[in-house]
Design a protein that fits this description.
Elements lengths: L1 H13 L17 H5 L26 H5 L6 E7 L2 H9 L6 H14 L9 E4 L4 H7 L3 H13 L8 E3 L11 H8 L3 E3 L7 E9 L3 H12 L4 E9 L11
Parallel strand pairs: 1-6, 2-5, 5-6
Antiparallel strand pairs: 3-4
């Protein structure tokens, strides 16, 4: 046992672990600085997860959700789309980022309890087959896998599919984003009467999550809760949905 520990220590000195985000030395997957930036304690609307002021919530929702309620009942995120969380999300946007995506899904699972939500299945927002082929994997599916493994909830990636190729959301304004994804998703009847945890990486206007949630509700889902890694709030200077 002692020799094993000494050997492990020598190996770590010669070949120190590297942070998957910044590349600095780390004892685990992320260095201390990046690890601290993977979440925040911002006050958020429980319905759409946007950051709000201390007096902005009325009847448990922000003004935007009261005016036009989204088709999902709740949205939960790790933090705002900035700093190390933004850097981690950007690193997920290529074939080598699948491991980071699953690790962040696990982090989301540790941060949020699903006990009170009684979720029946975890469903990732799907990619169109062409985009999936070009990227090599679906980052939302990898995040969903991490969440499902932490909470012991079944993952059902085939319950929702993307039936139409869409333009990148980052190139569009809010109204155009809604038009871009309208009718892009189709859900299977297996979702009927289920509470689905819909998983995506980033939410900006919410157009993608809303359209995916509508497809699930049309197919009979009793309830949809959205799980996202990062939330972009209107007025914040950092980032757009990718």
């Amino acid at each position: 046992m002692i020799l094993r520990r000494l050997s492990r220590g020598a190996i770590e000195l010669l070949y120190p672990a590297r942070c998957l985000i910044c590349g600095q030395s780390a004892h685990d997957h992320f260095c201390e600085n990046c690890d601290r930036g993977l979440g925040d304690r911002a006050l958020r609307c429980p319905r759409c997860a946007t950051t709000v002021g201390p007096h902005s919530l009325t009847e448990g929702e922000c003004a935007a959700c009261r005016k036009e309620p989204p088709p999902f009942s709740k949205a939960l995120c790790l933090g705002s789309y900035r700093g190390s969380l933004k850097a981690a999300v950007l690193r997920m946007k290529n074939a080598s980022g699948e491991g980071i995506a699953e690790l962040l899904g696990r982090r989301w699972g540790v941060t949020h309890s699903l006990g009170e939500l009684t979720v029946d299945a975890v469903v990732p927002v799907p990619l169109h087959w062409w985009k999936h082929w070009r990227r090599g994997y679906n980052q939302s599916a990898a995040i969903a896998l991490g969440i499902a493994r932490i909470h012991g909830v079944p993952i059902r990636p085939r319950w929702l599919c993307c039936i139409r190729r869409t333009a990148p959301q980052k190139t569009l304004q809010a109204t155009a984003r809604q038009i871009n994804v309208k009718g892009a998703f189709q859900a299977r009847s297996a979702v009927s009467c289920r509470h689905v945890l819909l998983v995506d990486d980033v939410m900006t206007t919410g157009a993608t999550s809303e359209e995916a949630a509508r497809a699930l509700r049309r197919a009979g889902a009793a309830r949809v809760t959205v799980a996202i890694l990062a939330r972009v709030t209107v007025g914040e200077p950092d980032g757009v949905e990718l």
